[in-house]
Amino acid sequence: MSPDDVIEMFRKHAGEIPLEAPGPMLADVIQELAGLLADSRGRLPKETFEALTRIGGVLYREGESQFLARTDVDAVMKTSNRE
Question: For the purposes of burial, counting CB atoms within 10 Å of the CB of 78, is it exposed (0-12), middle (13-18) or buried (19 or more)?
């Protein structure tokens, strides 16, 4: 299997995600990845584990960014509703 084959699998799964669900789904995926890594810590080569935790870090940052953006928009909307 090549990286392109895996990217195609990512595309397939991405196409199945409802557009309104990315925020909660991202949190679920981060939690799932964390569980898989916790369970496989001693069985994965160190380099693989570190690569997967780096990927998890990117996902986490994206989720945090989305959360902060939603929080900012919510604050702006509450302020504009008062005026």
Answer: exposed
